[in-house]
From TrEMBL:
It comes from Streptomyces fimbriatus. InterPro entries: Cyt_P450, Cyt_P450_B, Cyt_P450_sf, P450-rel_GT_act. CDD domains: AknT-like (cd11036). It comes from the Bacteria. Belongs to the cytochrome P450 family. This is P450-derived glycosyltransferase activator.
Amino acid sequence: MTRHQIDPRQFSDSDLARHLLTVRGVQWMNGDRGAPLALLLRDHGVDPRTLHATLRGTPALRQTDLDVWVTACYEPAAAILTDPRLTSRDTTRQGRRRRVYSLGAQATAKFVLTIDDTALAADHADRARTGELTRDWLSGPAVERHRARTADTFTGLPLPDGEQDTFDLLADYLRPGTAAALAALLGLPAGPAQHYAALLPATTHVLDCLLCPPTLATGRALVEGYDGIAALVDRALAAPRELPPGALAGLLHAAGGDSAPVRPVALLTLVAGAHLATNLACRTVAALLAHPQEWQAVRQEPARADAAVTETLRYDPPVRITGRIAGEAMEIAGLPVAAGDLVTVLVDAAQRDPAIHPEPDRFLPARAAGAAPLVFADPRISLLEPVVRLVATEAVRALLARRPHLTAAGEPVRHIRVPVTGATARFPVRTAGHQTAPHDGAAAPR
C-alpha cells in the first residue's frame, strides 16, 4: 500500500492522534503556500470551482507536490481511472504502513488510513474477478428485479403530514430508507438489518479518510461502526440456511459456499454503497429544489428521475476526489510520472470540463447523453453503480410523489473533513410552502 497509510486499529490513541494531526498540519501548511490539492483536502474556506478553473488547460496534469499530481480535465481523468497500471497499492512501500507519519519522514503523506483493504482497495483485476461472481446478483439487470421493492421501502417510510412540517431529509428519509433498501437487497435478517442501520452513520468518513485525516474521535467511531457491520455480515454468512432470499445467499451459492469472496462485496455495498446512494439522492433533491422547473418536470413525469440522477452524477457527484498510485514509471498526458507517485483526479472538476460538456455549470437533466460520469470509473467502487443508481432514483421518485410541494427549510449542513464525498450531515426540508423563482445556473448546495 501507499506510504504512511496505517490501520488505526493497530495504534494507540496517542500515536494515531499524532499521525492524523501531522498529516492535517502538512495539508494545512501546503494550502497556505497555495498548493491547490492541499487547499481542497483541508476542506476549509475555499471555493473548489475557483481552484478547478486554475487547474484546467495546459498542462492537463499538474504536479502539486514532489510526487503528487492532479488533473481537473476530463480526458486525462478518464485515462487515469481506467489504466490498470495505476493502482490502489504501492507495493514498494509496504514497511511504512507500520509507521505513523512524522515531519521527518522525508516523504509525502499520500493515503492516510486504511479501514479494509479487501473491500475498499480493489484494482481492475480484482473487479474483473468480482464481476463474474456478482453478475447474477448485483449487475444492472439483477438489481432491476428489486426496483419495486426499493420503491416500496421509501414509500413506506413515515414522514410528517402537517402543512409546513419540517423534517431532516437525511435522518428522517434518505439514511433509513437506503439502509432498509440495501439490507433487503442483500437479504440481511431482520435483527441484523436494524443493527446495521444504527451502525451505518458512524461510517460516514469511510471514503474520505483515505485522503483527509478525520479527527481522532471520528476515526475511532468509524472503525467501531465498520467492524460492527462486518461482524453482522460474518454472522449472516456463517449461517447461510437462515438467510432470507437475497444477494448474500445468491453470492454464497455462486461462490460454492465460500464466504471469503462474498464478504468484501457485502461490506462494500452496505457501507460505501449506502453513503454513495444517500449522497447522490440528497444532491439530486438539492439540485431539483434549486431549479423548480426541473422539480416540476420530474413531478409530472416520474420517469425523468433517472435523468436527474444521471445529471447529478455529472453536476455534483457523490465522489469529488480520487487518488491512484503509479505502479510503474509511466507517461500521463505527455508527462513522466514516477513509480509510486500519487495521481489525483478531481472528479467534480473533470465532469464540468467545458471541453466536454457545453454549459457545464448548468443543471440540465435533459442534457444529451455524452461523456460517461467518472465516479464509477474508479475500480474501487465500480461494482456499486447499478445499486447506487437504483436506490437514489427510487428515493427521489418516491419523495416527489409523496411530497410534491417540498421546499428547502434551510441550507444543507455538511460534515467536516469530507473533501472526497462532501457528505451532507443535515438538510432541513418543509412539506409545503412557497416555491422560489427558478434561478437556472445556480449551483446545488455544497
